[in-house]
Design brief:
There is one protein chain. The protein is mainly α and 424 residues long. The protein has a single domain, classed as Up-down Bundle (Amino acid/polyamine transporter I), CATH 1.20.1740.10. The chain is built from 17 helices and no strands.
């Protein structure tokens, strides 16, 4: 069996996108962004959202034309070349595994703020393993849990915004450009990590009902909704608390909420962060398993990875493998390193995605129901802006990505010489 069941509707798919975006970014990465940009973090968030919108339009068009499992990897495989697709797929997988590590650590930071006697690393490991187990049960079951998590965390962020607006002190916005323009760009490169989630929807092409329509619409809806939530939350947080307190904090929203003097609000924010990061981690594991499944189905990874459980209809080998790798990295990396590596890996994959959006009209002119406006300007802007953000990231992200590309290329050449059959 190589096909997956189409069970997700527009609400499910959009919620998966929002679940993947609104989580570790706003509850954890916001502190790192403020550390670079200061109060101008709001500009970083808007800038990252604009850059993400270019790629979102590219995702929408290509997913409409190629509604298959695997997302960016599958698009590159069909529109560019199998070799580049494999390298990009490996970069995307590494980026998402490392992103899952960051999300697990973010979950642990908030959990330990409520239960300080526990070890953050242990909590992160347990979270990764528990959500791996949930993924094994089925995509519809995972989507139902995710829908509930998304509704709850959005409600909690709305509570934070409404409770915080009357207490904003405009003096906290000064000096606005404390990190200069370079700080804004660096902050945007880090917060872009949060927006990467909308691509998670595209990895589920075969599990969505009416994918040619549902995929592009859910991608754009998820991004627009999430940008609004991010902007309002960051505006209130930096208005409540001086940026020097929030800079680098592992729990910036909770730290900002302490200004209210209401412990119930602070505790609610911490619970919301747990729910948010759990939701992102859940969708992260879904995306990871589906891309590795697609790569195995195309014969570029061992065929066993494409095995589907007869009872639950899930690619169980790829789910277990992704969960175990993520758990191992939780014990090795810190939060800032994981975010930088994840952002770079996925940004490099999105270069190929935007290039695929340019090629899709040439190779498949009649395919799909969604057409990007201002074509080919939008995907070209996606290419350029993603490149600029990549150069704003630390050296370690370049080193890891270069190493992954070299290893992936070597593996591809060896497997091409000694091929294994595609999994059927």
């Amino acid at each position: 069996m190589t096909g997956l069941r189409g069970t997700l509707n527009l609400f499910d798919a959009t919620a998966i996108g929002i679940g993947a975006i609104v989580g570790a970014g706003i509850f954890v990465v916001l502190g790192i962004t403020i550390g670079y940009a200061g109060p101008a973090a709001i500009v970083s968030i808007i800038m990252a959202g604009v850059v993400a919108s270019f790629t979102a339009f590219s995702f929408a068009e290509v997913s409409s034309a190629i509604p298959k499992e695997g997302g960016i990897y599958e698009y590159a495989y069909e529109l560019v070349s199998p070799f580049l697709a494999f390298v990009v797929g490996c970069l995307w997988l590494v980026g998402q595994i490392v992103a899952g590590t960051a999300i697990s650590l973010g979950f642990a930071n908030y959990f330990v703020s409520l239960f300080p006697s526990l070890s953050p690393r242990l909590v992160a490991v347990i979270a990764a393993l528990a959500l791996t187990a949930l993924n094994l049960v089925g995509i519809k079951e995972s989507a139902m849990v995710n829908n509930a998590l998304v509704a709850t965390k959005v409600a909690i962020l709305v509570l934070f915004i409404l409770a915080g607006i009357p207490l904003i002190d405009v003096r906290n916005y000064s000096p606005f450009l404390s990190g200069g323009f370079s700080g804004i760009f660096q902050g945007a490169a880090f917060i872009f990590f949060a927006y990467l989630g909308f691509g998670r929807i595209a990895t589920l092409g075969e599990e969505v009902k009416n994918p040619a329509r549902t995929l592009p619409l859910s991608i754009l809806l998820a991004l627009v909704t999430s940008v609004i939530i991010y902007v309002m939350t960051a505006l209130v947080a930096t208005g409540l608390q001086n940026y020097t307190v929030l800079a680098g904090s592992g729990s910036p929203i909770a730290d900002a909420a302490r200004v209210t003097g209401n412990y119930a609000v602070v505790a609610t924010i911490s619970v919301g962060a747990l729910i948010a990061t759990a939701s992102v981690l859940l969708t992260n594991l879904i995306g990871l398993s589906r891309v590795s499944f697609a790569m195995a189905r195309n014969g570029q990874l061992p065929g066993q990875i494409a095995k589907i459980d007869a009872r639950f209809g899930t690619p169980y080998v790829s789910i277990i493998g992704a969960g175990l790798l993520m758990t191992a990295l939780v014990l090795l990396l810190n939060l800032a390193e994981t975010i930088a590596i994840a952002s770079f890996s996925v940004l490099s994959a999105q270069l190929v995605l935007n290039y695929s959006a340019i090629r899709v009209r040439r190779k498949m002119p009649k395919a799909g129901t969604f057409k990007t406006p201002l074509y080919p300007l939008i995907p070209l802007l996606g290419l350029v802006s993603s490149t600029v953000l990549m150069f704003s990231l630390p050296d370690i992200s370049w080193i890891v990505a270069f190493f992954v590309a070299i290893v992936a290329s070597g593996y591809y050449l060896i497997r091409r010489r000694f091929p294994g059959p595609p999994h059927n």
